[in-house]
Design brief:
Blueprint: E1 9-13, E2 17-22, E3 30-33, E4 36-39, E5 54-55, H1 57-61, E6 66-69, E7 72-73, E8 76-77, H2 80-94, E9 102-108, H3 114-124, E10 130-137, H4 138-144, E11 151-156, E12 161-167, E13 170-171, E14 177-179, H5 183-197, H6 206-220, H7 227-230, E15 238-241, E16 247-250, H8 253-256, H9 276-291, H10 293-300, E17 303-306, H11 315-326, E18 337-338, H12 346-355, E19 365-366, H13 367-373, H14 378-381
Parallel strand pairs: 1-9, 9-10, 11-17, 17-18
Antiparallel strand pairs: 1-2, 2-3, 4-5, 4-6, 7-8, 10-19, 11-12, 12-13, 12-14, 15-16
């Protein structure tokens, strides 16, 4: 059994949340929103410089005095200095790492480009105590968390969703599809619907309002299993108690907001022409064309949902129903959509499990490798 002294550090810096901990842990011990806050003016926080940064929960505690930025959006790093600030915050303030020699596992979105991988290596090896890093795609790691090496991984995260086919631990490039919609977009849609029907809520400051609306979404929203049938009904209103006092009743908003996952243009947004079911269908059809029908069928038996937003009730049933309709060459029994427990931590847990495997030792990039060959050495190890 590994202990903290023998464990590697698992660090997943996502668009919505940063998850960190030691590889011997079953779930991340550190979870906080990936946000950076700076003082609005010199007056709001006496003695604090305007360029001082507050990260994660520290920023949320001072929400009325700060302006916020997101170091990562849609799975892409927007500000490398802020990204590194998040990493430093995790190691020094949250985990308080004192060891002189340790490694870090950094799961990456499937579409992370070569330049970003090299930049990550450069910045992480600027930390003197880091002796090795393990950069790997998140999809195989997520499947590994559930004891799988093959499957169609459907990730629904903070602000991006994706469908990634994995065969024997290897990502099949031709089947990768992405959708720039996630939990934050559902939250914004819910806020829009509430403002239309409950205009007094518009007085909330934006970030605070988003926080409240996000909590409402997670607690009360659900996805219609049968859109044609369920859209004609009115669900029993549910009441949400506001932290500022008072209550809000939600009715049809509960299922209308998440519907943008499957119908992105429902409220006029045409930036995403395809819904979740359609990118999954495209991925499966690409596999059928390039790998054959039997290979595609085998992966359809393991359609695996992961990501925090995938916890919304109704998503597994709705996705299967849509795929059965869109893929007439597959019977209902040939499509299995799995929604495992603790799937919001799937990538992190898979990374923790893989960190100590003998089979992955060759995929670590050491400081010696980096100093000898330069940043491009990471591509030799990255799969």
């Amino acid at each position: 059994m590994l202990n903290e002294a023998d464990s590697e550090i698992i660090l997943d810096v996502g668009s919505g949340y940063c998850k960190a901990g030691f590889s011997h842990e079953d779930v991340p011990s550190v979870v906080f929103p990936t946000i950076v806050g700076r003082p609005i003016s010199e007056d709001v926080l006496p003695g604090v410089a305007l360029d001082e940064k507050f990260i994660g929960n520290e920023a949320k505690l001072r929400k009325d005095a700060l302006t916020f930025s997101a170091p990562v959006r849609r799975g892409i790093v927007q500000n490398w200095d802020e990204w590194m600030g998040v990493v430093d915050h995790v190691l020094n303030m949250e985990m308080k790492i004192e060891r002189d020699d340790f490694g870090i596992v950094l799961p990456q979105p499937t579409t992370t480009n070569r330049e970003s991988l090299e930049k990550i290596a450069e910045m992480i090896f600027e930390i003197p105590k880091v002796n090795r890093i393990f950069l790997a795609r998140s999809a195989p790691m997520a499947l590994h968390a559930f004891g799988m090496t093959s499957g169609l991984l459907v990730s629904i995260g903070h602000d991006v969703s994706s469908c990634v086919p994995v065969l024997q631990g290897n990502v099949l490039e031709e089947g990768i599809r992405e959708l720039n919609i996630g939990g934050s977009d559902i939250t914004q849609t819910l806020k829009m619907l509430m403002k239309e029907q409950k205009p007094t809520l518009s007085s909330f400051r934006n970030f605070f309002h988003d926080d409240i609306t996000k909590a409402m979404m997670e607690r009360l929203c659900y996805v219609m299993v049968n859109e044609n049938r369920d859209s004609r009904t009115s669900p029993r209103p549910r009441t949400y108690s506001l932290p500022t006092g008072g209550t809000v009743n939600l009715g049809r908003e509960r299922f209308l907001a998440p519907e943008i996952l499957f119908k992105p243009g429902l409220f006029g947004d045409t930036s995403n022409a395809k819904g979740l079911q359609e990118i999954c269908c495209e991925s499966i059809e690409a596999l059928r064309t390039n790998k054959g029908e039997e290979e595609a069928k085998s992966l359809c038996q393991n359609v695996v949902l992961v990501g925090g937003t995938s916890l919304l009730p109704g998503i597994p049933e709705r996705l299967k129903s849509e795929l059965v309709h869109l893929l007439p060459w597959l019977s209902e029994n040939e499509i299995t959509v799995q929604a495992p427990q603790r799937r919001q931590y799937a990538v992190w847990r898979g990374a923790a499990q893989m960190a100590s495997l003998n089979s992955t030792k060759s995929r670590w990039t050491t400081r010696q490798d980096f100093e000898k060959y330069g940043p491009s050495v990471v591509h030799r190890k990255y799969l």
